[in-house]
């Protein structure tokens, strides 16, 4: 598995990332996809293509120490309009603790679509990655004794549907934080929410980290399926 030590050392220099690292509610865990498996070519995208100085040189995954059980019935999908969202009485993802927090050091220019803007497809992939780790956290918590090794804990998990809502452009180079949470589970079916956030450099307070607004750049929801071992 990818080691967390070098990533922790790197992100300690950023005040926002350091605050996340200092939370007693979360603990660093290996980012499995940063470990390339040459025998089968697994994880080549995150471990090789997205692991360069001009893409994502550093990434760190934090997992909530106590994973709460999600609801046991299918949830309502993302609201279709702002009016629908305003009418919803359910708490938003930002108001509830995330299962997984991924901190990405976004480089430039190799992830850019428009100038100083990360390509939307890349952003979707980063969100999908955080969602996979949230599903893995829940499957590990409910069935710690599994036929899959730790290295393979995501090997039987697949995204079946991914709905990404882009609110604002994701800047680069910059820090990107993705929060993901399993909001419902029915057997092998998982529903996951995620948000990608960046700091608002133009907000009041200037360089003071505590005064910078954390802006939701992207909101997403997905349906995941965990396949039985015998069907892989």
Describe, in plain words, how this protein is organized in 3D:
The protein is α+β, with helices and mostly antiparallel strands and about 230 residues long. It has one domain: Hotdog Thioesterase (Thiol Ester Dehydrase, Chain A, Roll), CATH 3.10.129.10. Helices cover about 20% and strands about 30% of the residues. It has a seven-stranded antiparallel sheet, with helices on both faces. A hairpin with a 2-residue loop joins strand 5 and strand 6. It holds the Pfam family 4HBT. This is Thioesterase domain-containing protein. It comes from Penicillium decumbens.
- How many strand units? 7
Number of helices: 5
**Main β sheet profile:** 7 strands, antiparallel
Low-confidence stretches: 145-150
Q: Which structural class fits the helix and strand makeup? A: alpha+beta
Tell me the series of helices and strands, N- to C-terminal. HHEHEHEHEEEE
Residues in β-strands, percent = 25-35%
The CATH homologous superfamily: Hotdog Thioesterase
Helix share, percent: 10-25%
N/C terminus separation: 22 Å
Q: Quick check: average pLDDT? A: 88
Order of strands in the sheet with most strands: 1-2-3-5-6-7-4
Outline type: globular
CATH architectural type? Roll
Provide the CATH topology: Thiol Ester Dehydrase, Chain A
How many structural domains does the protein architecture include?
1
CATH class: Alpha Beta
Cα-based radius of gyration, to the nearest Å: 17 Å
Provide keyphrases for this structure:
232 residues, alpha+beta, Thiol Ester Dehydrase, Chain A, 7-stranded antiparallel sheet, 21% helix, Thioestr_dom, HotDog_dom_sf
């Amino acid at each position: 598995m990818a080691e967390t030590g070098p990533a922790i050392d790197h992100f300690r220099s950023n005040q926002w990332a350091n605050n996340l690292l200092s939370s007693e509610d979360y603990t660093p865990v290996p980012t499995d996809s940063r470990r390339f498996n040459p025998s089968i070519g697994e994880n080549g995208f995150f471990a090789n293509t997205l692991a360069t100085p001009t893409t994502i040189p550093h990434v760190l995954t934090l997992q909530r120490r106590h994973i709460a059980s999600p609801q046991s019935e299918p949830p309502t999908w993302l609201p279709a309009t702002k009016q629908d969202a305003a009418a919803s009485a359910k708490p938003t993802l930002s108001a509830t603790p995330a299962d997984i927090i991924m901190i990405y050091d976004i480089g430039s220019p190799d992830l850019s679509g428009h100038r100083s803007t990360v390509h939307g497809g890349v952003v979707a992939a980063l969100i999908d990655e955080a969602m996979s780790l949230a599903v893995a956290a829940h499957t590990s918590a409910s069935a710690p004794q599994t036929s899959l090794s730790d290295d393979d804990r995501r090997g039987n998990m697949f995204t079946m549907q991914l709905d990404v809502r882009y609110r604002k452009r994701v800047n680069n180079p910059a820090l990107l934080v993705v929060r993901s949470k399993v909001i419902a589970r029915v057997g092998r079916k998982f529903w996951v929410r995620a948000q990608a956030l960046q700091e608002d450099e133009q907000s009041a307070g200037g360089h003071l980290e505590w005064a910078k607004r954390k802006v939701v750049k992207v909101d997403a929801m997905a349906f995941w399926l965990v396949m039985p071992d015998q069907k892989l």
